[in-house]
From TrEMBL:
Transmembrane residue ranges: none
Classification lineage: Bacteria, Pseudomonadati, Pseudomonadota, Gammaproteobacteria, Cellvibrionales
Gene3D superfamilies, per the entry: Aldolase class I (3.20.20.70)
InterPro entries tied to this protein: Aldolase_TIM, DapA-like
Keywords, in A-Z order: Lyase
Encoding gene, per UniProt annotation: dapA_1
Record protein name field: 4-hydroxy-tetrahydrodipicolinate synthase
Family: Belongs to the DapA family.
Residues of the signal peptide: none
Amino acid sequence: MINGSIVDLITPICKDGSPDYDVLETLVDWHVENGSAALLIGSATGQSTQFDIDERSELLKRAIWQSDGRIPIIADLSAGDPEQIFEFARTADEFGSSAMLLTLTGENYSSLAELIDYLRELSALVKLPLIARDDFANPGVLSPATLTKLTQIDGLLGFVNNSSLATSEHAVQVQDLPANFALYSGHDSDACQLCLSGYRGGISIVANIAPNLVQNMFTSALIGDRDNAESINNNLQPLAEGLLEDPNSIPVMWALVEMGCIPEGEEPPTLPQSSDYANLRRALRTAKIAI
């Protein structure tokens, strides 16, 4: 079971728009050194739609090779075509992914029974551990009442609560789920509180530039050290707000360049407004990240 910070890893991009595989390998090493719990490849801020299946396969292969077993690599299976999802799942299995993540939408499944059958078939196809991700704010997909049905699928080890709603109607009761089934947060904004309530970690964009801090926040929450977890989280929230105000990969890449983690490249990432530079620099200083 993966516990802690699952980094929604940003894919560096070359001038021609193709993935920068060399910089990706540098980032894998950096996250190993900073103690991230796992890396999710090809998912961050919708980047999966920017690349074709060959580029996504190469990204996954490079990340797995570079990790060399030092950190779990999770393959994002995002695709509009269910058959392409199966194809990429087979690729992930062949390359040696640690797990795979599938975002559930209401478009491809006419009923809960059909969805469960699909997940069973996918899990059985490659034998890789599967994590499902959903948005409770999207009606007709899933609800907490039906989540228990997913826990009965062999090979499904966890669920990412990607809801932005905080009402009791959408609350998942951790104690009602099997001990070997993990819940993960899908947003940096509520990750700390959910982990303090029993979640095992979360998928994080902020961890792209503050991997050690995000992992320490989760670790503190997992051991019940509320004061330290909330203290770290309070320092990280301005950074989360700054990065996700305009959700795309550019602010993250800009910050990584400022921190000296990746090279500027031929076309350095540029933020849309001059105020964004000041806001992000201020958020980095609040989180005590050197730039």
